[in-house]
Design a protein that fits this description.
Low-confidence stretches: 1-16, 507-525, 539-588, 707-725, 737-759, 761-787
Oligomer: single chain
CATH class of one domain: Alpha Beta
CATH superfamily of one domain: P-loop containing nucleotide triphosphate hydrolases
CATH architecture of one domain: 3-Layer(aba) Sandwich
Strand content: 5-15%
Distance between the termini: 133 Å
Length: 812
């Protein structure tokens, strides 16, 4: 609506154009000043100590101030000025020295000076070897780039590929892992990287060497060569082949700590323990029990070992919260565990090398390496999870006696100071029995123990450094026993495999049997072949083989014509393998299957042999004959008694000792059998007496009928409520007619009619019978019943005396 007083008049047009022009002119002038300041910047100026001393744009400077970054570290002072000038950099610095900001600040400045927008596509690509490190880099980027208008994305896998592909086209900065990024470059149609300005490789030595070589080479082919490249790591690679693959142009090598006396932080205390293989878990358990109020990070060589140690220790409850992290977990679970350990005050995290590089866990007190790392560089990265940013930390390495000499040489060559310590005897405790009990009670723990055993032994076998990792020195039987396993698992080894390539092979190429984690050893899945492909490979099917090859060649020609219409970006190696397998000429010959039947091995090299496996009757002649058994009287089976050979008999020891040992064992057996027989005899005697008492009461007419089935008499002087009763109470309760100071017609018992005061007091053995004295008789002890006197030698005290008394009364 128009303002009051302006009715009938046209509103004056707003003057927006001059303000836009002024604003653009001002931005242009600021960019020119910023560029001039960068051109005049001296990278070796010692006065550059704070971020405010650098020629940075206002959005970046304000983001650094809001994130409380003010003073630069050594690697930042050396790398950022060179990167601002557009130079390629090879940066090497100790762990925890702030390498992340050393490449994120140049990335933001590069795109800001180029006035990058969402319509310009991808401008910066940051590659990380692990998902956890990529997430950490992305969080730092969000903090310092909060005032910029760039769009940033995180591509690490674990989510829908389609959802990520829809957003990639609008991203200016991408933080990713190599495998997932290569998948988008191959499959996402509208993803364009031709305008890329800067490429960053964090932990470059790991990306270039371990498992990512093929993925990185294929990824570099998609990127333009006219770009700036930054490589950062704690252990940098200087190989010319790596630099040539990345198309680096006169790179500047920045190593601020190369002249330092040690390759690790000075605030880090490093120790190692020499322990046998079967005592590793005992030592680890004792360490955890002694450091309950600490934050501990424990490294193991494979995911199977992580799961076994976590599941067994969790059930044994050491008294400290336990967590575990490995590459086979879902992405949501990995993020949750990482956040929980970062926020915890006291906790223990069992992990693989998936968190060995770059991850910033705050306030880690101890880094424990239960398994020896494959090289000194991996050791440096592992211990770098503690003592970060000039804080204190401690690290302990477990070494086998066979690994001590070789690995200490590797550490000395890398300028790593380490001292040997000994475990106190009081702190040692064997947990073998507890592990055996867990493996017996829980089948999943036993399964994980077997997998942990296999993965560790296989990793040692595949290591290249045979001076450190000596497979023949391992006591496998004792090691399996220390894990609680009932026996030593059998292992099949592959020769000629590269452990680094196997440990970092993509998940799709790993088989389920050999999977350990993203850093664990694995092998490529066997190619699935159709029925017609198997027929085509047979040598005796010439007609069908040639016919099928002709069909396959026609299909390949048609596919090639379609490829001309819609070209693909890269041809996968697996396609060539499939074509060779379909044609039959390029497919490798399959080895015949061997089946073990006892001690004999049956080679399945024909269709008849396969049918033979289905027939139990035909397989019987290949099987071992069983042992004949005999059943005793109790139904227990035992082998037929056979005489022992004279030589075997003499091996067992002297005859006198054997005779003495035999007599001792048989004597013990006889004693045990005697005790059992006596107990059975007592029980039978008691039952016989009870039956006799019941029968007598029935005859006397005291029971209305036969005793009910559930009725029982108390045994051994116990009542129905478990209280002690008088064994003579049954006969004392019998009704007595006549005198004795009672009414003749009453039939009351002692327990029913008389109180405790009315009951006759028991006479002691030295008291005389008053009734006999009054009558003047010489009888020692008399009882009156209906006018008749019954003589007794002494007062009845036993069950037999009372029975005789009752019988005399009833006869009258």
């Amino acid at each position: 609506m128009a303002a009051p007083g302006t009715k009938g008049k046209k509103a004056a047009p707003k003057k927006l154009e001059p303000s836009r022009k002024v604003k653009r002119q001002k931005e242009k002038e600021n960019l020119e000043k910023l560029q001039n300041a960068i051109d005049q910047l001296d990278p070796k100026n010692p006065d550059l100590k704070k971020f405010a001393d650098l020629p940075l744009c206002e959005p970046t400077a304000s983001g650094l101030r809001a994130s409380h970054y003010e003073v630069m570290t050594d690697i930042q002072r050396a790398a950022i000025p060179l990167a601002l000038k557009g130079r390629d950099i090879l940066g090497a610095a100790k762990t925890g020295s702030g390498k992340t900001l050393a490449f994120l600040v140049p990335v933001l400045e590069k795109l800001y000076r180029a006035q990058w927008t969402e319509y310009d596509g991808l401008g910066a690509l940051i590659i990380s070897p692990t998902r956890e490190l990529a997430i950490q880099i992305f969080e730092v980027l969000r903090k310092i780039g909060r005032h910029h208008y760039f769009s940033a994305g995180l591509v690490i896998g674990g989510k829908s590929l389609k959802e990520e592909a829809e957003r990639l086209g609008r991203m200016n900065i991408l933080v990713c892992t190599p495998g997932r990024m290569l998948q988008h470059l191959d499959q996402t149609a509208n993803f364009d990287v031709n305008n890329l300005q800067i490429l960053v490789l964090d932990e470059a030595d790991r990306i270039m060497d371990m498992g990512f070589q093929q993925a990185v080479d294929a990824l570099i082919e998609h990127l333009p060569k006219s770009r700036q490249t930054l490589l950062f790591s704690a252990t940098q690679s200087k190989r010319v082949s790596d630099l040539a693959r990345l198309s680096l142009k006169d790179p500047e090598y920045v190593s601020v700590h190369e002249a330092a006396p040690t390759a690790t932080p000075a605030t880090l205390q490093q120790h190692y323990i020499v322990t046998p293989l079967h005592e590793k878990l005992d030592t680890l358990w004792g360490f955890l029990r002694s450091n309950l109020k600490s934050k501990i990070l424990v490294f193991l060589s494979s995911g199977k070992q992580v799961r076994f140690v976590y599941e067994s220790f969790r059930r044994m409850q050491p008294g400290i919260p336990l967590l575990h992290l490995h590459g086979r977990q879902k992405q949501i679970a990995r993020m949750e565990i990482t956040n929980r350990f970062a926020a915890a005050k006291y906790s223990c995290l069992f992990a693989t090398d998936v968190v060995a590089r770059g991850i910033d866990f705050p306030a880690v007190d101890w880094v424990i390496q239960v398994d020896c790392p494959e090289d000194a560089d991996t050791y440096i990265h592992r211990v770098g999870r503690t003592a970060r940013y000039e804080s204190k930390g401690r690290a302990v390495l477990f070494l086998l006696p066979s690994e001590e000499e070789g690995f200490l040489k590797r550490l000395e060559h890398k300028k790593v100071p380490i001292q040997r310590v000994h475990v106190r005897e009081k702190k040692k405790k064997s947990i073998k029995n507890e592990l055996q009990s867990l493996c017996f009670q829980f089948a999943d723990v036993k399964y994980l123990g077997q997998k942990a055993f296999i993965s560790y032994v296989r990793s040692v076998y595949l290591q290249k450094d045979k001076e450190v990792f000596k497979f023949d020195a391992l006591d496998l039987d004792t090691f399996a026993e220390s894990l609680g396993l009932p026996g030593t698992p059998q292992i099949k080894f592959q020769k000629g495999e590269d452990v680094k390539r196997l440990k970092n092979m993509p998940r799709a190429l790993l088989s389920s049997d050999d999977e350990s984690d993203s850093d664990g050893a694995g092998k490529k899945k066997e190619q699935v072949k159709t029925k017609y492909q198997k027929l085509a490979e047979r040598q005796n099917q010439d007609v069908l083989s040639s016919h099928y090859r002709k069909l396959v060649e026609d299909d390949n020609q048609q596919d090639g014509e379609e490829d001309d219409f819609l070209p693909v970006k890269r041809v996968l190696e697996g396609d060539a393998e499939l074509d060779a397998a379909a044609g039959g000429s390029g497919a490798p010959e399959e080895k015949p299957k061997v089946v073990k039947l006892g001690k004999t091995e049956l080679v399945i090299d024909s269709h008849r042999r396969e049918k033979l496996l289905k027939s139990k009757k035909k397989l019987a002649k290949y099987m071992e004959k069983g042992q004949k058994l005999v059943f005793d009287d109790e139904g227990n089976a035992h082998p037929i008694y056979e005489l022992q050979n004279e030589e075997e008999f003499h091996r067992e020891g002297p005859v006198d000792e054997l005779r003495k040992r035999f007599l001792e064992t048989e004597t013990e057996k006889v004693k045990e059998a005697d005790i059992e027989d006596k107990e059975i005899a007592k029980k039978r005697l008691k039952e016989k007496r009870l039956k006799r008492k019941l029968r007598e009461r029935e005859e006397m007419g005291l029971l209305a009928g036969p005793a009910p089935a559930g009725a029982q008499l108390a045994v051994d002087g116990e009542g129905s409520d478990g209280e002690q009763e008088d064994p003579l109470a049954l006969l004392r309760s019998l009704p007595i007619a006549g005198g004795g100071g009672r009414d003749s017609g009453s039939e009351r018992s002692y327990s029913e009619s008389e109180s405790e005061e009315e009951k006759p007091k028991k006479r002691k053995w030295f008291q005389k019978d008053e009734s006999s004295d009054e009558e003047g008789g010489d009888r020692k002890n008399k009882k009156r019943k209906g006018g008749k006197v019954i003589e007794m030698g002494q007062e009845p005290t036993t069950l037999e005396d009372l029975e005789a008394l009752a019988t005399g009364l009833l006869e009258d």
